[in-house]
Amino acid sequence: MSADLVFLVFGAGLLLAVVLPDLLSRWAVSAPMVLVGAGMLIGLAPLPAGMPLDPIENRAVVEHVTEVTVIVALMGVGLALDRPLLVRGRDRAAAWRAWSPTWRLLGVAMPLTVAGVALLGWWAGLAPAAALLLGAALAPTDPVLASDVQVTGPRTGEGEDDERGESDEVRFSLTSEAGLNDGLAFPLVYAAIMLGTEGSVASWGISWLAWELVGKVAVGVLLGVAVGAGLARLAFRSRSAALRVADRGEPLLVIAALVTAYGVAEVAGGYGFLAVFVCALTVRSLERHHQYHRSMHEVVERLERLFTLVVLLVLGAALTRGVLGALDWPGVAVGSALILLVRPAAAWLALAVRPPRPEVSGGLTRGERGAVAFFGVRGVGSLYYLAYALGEMELAQEAWLWSTVAFTVTASVLVHGITSTPVMARLQTARRAERVSS
């Protein structure tokens, strides 16, 4: 396969990324499923030497490509959410209650999922550090591959159709969870790294709790708010017409926002992923009804499709080029249990205990709770966390971890891709029927 043919393959893949979302919208097939399948076919062809398909040999490449993909996706989901979080006055309690599913999924479901996967990893024969890393990498839901079950974009007018927007509590819950759960994933990834490099928890537990769990989260949130507020005021309310880029409709400010927020937070030692998402929420909150939000979201959405295309094609090619070489039945059991048992059970428990009433914002019906619990999509973020951690420490089970995570991501793409269209359509039909009856 010549280098020129690579351009042809990439061009064909990009065409698929452009047309597949609308083409497959009525079928129980998702765009990620098709792209992974196309990548598998590419992997069966004779490829040029030096293609970065082995994640162990090309760990740094995997880390940086998946990192950028997640950053772009987080900015997109942050801009898509229009539900206020920080509200002054009497509405503050109602605003926080509207985010109730998010807090439950973050504070209860995710720690339970980490613990469940880590225990399964220990059962499969992993060392404690490797088991904790597996749980931390696989527990967070993915903002990249879950577009079929997430809020599709910002609403900037009262008369817009919102059937796939924030009036859909399932989509809001899954979108907000995917945007924020990196703030809990990274501290646990660092805990795994410290356990693998420094040994006993007694030697690093207090510093981890103070800085990795609390300090870095606070830094990420504060800097995300600061960057978002500063750029939003510049774009929407600057006294200089030349600086009010929202009036000109120049959407590339969103790229400056995500790069600046991530860079500032990382330089300051905070969590850049969290800063990017909070930055997007802040920009969105300053001027909710301006069409500029939609323009920025469209730019981010196109960038996300491009990077997702690359990741999924390479993942698919790697599947047929040996990345599953160390996969055994315990690895299959761990990945399958996460998708079909651990995540659904943990999320159901989190959402079912004293839930808000279904008729209020943040309330879910029984069927909606089941959908939110089930659709915990695993994806690009898991690949990033694993690549990052393995760059910080050496583990004897590295090949097994890559095989198990690659299998789990692929299985999630398949299972959730097949079920998302019929399940979401059924929930939408139920909501329409409820509106008519009321």
TrEMBL record:
Compartments, record wording: Cell membrane
Location, primary (coarse class): membrane
Superkingdom of origin organism: Bacteria
Region of interest called Disordered, as start-end residue ranges on this chain: 148-168
Transmembrane segments: 31-49, 61-81, 101-124, 188-211, 217-236, 248-264, 306-327, 333-351, 371-388, 400-425
Entry coiled-coil feature ranges: none
Keyword match Cell membrane: yes
Domain Cation/H+ exchanger transmembrane: 17-425
Keyword Cytoplasm: no
Keywords: Antiport, Cell membrane, Ion transport, Membrane, Transmembrane, Transmembrane helix, Transport
Topology with respect to the bilayer: Multi-pass membrane protein
A Pfam family assignment: Na_H_Exchanger
Protein's name according to its UniProt entry: Sodium:proton antiporter
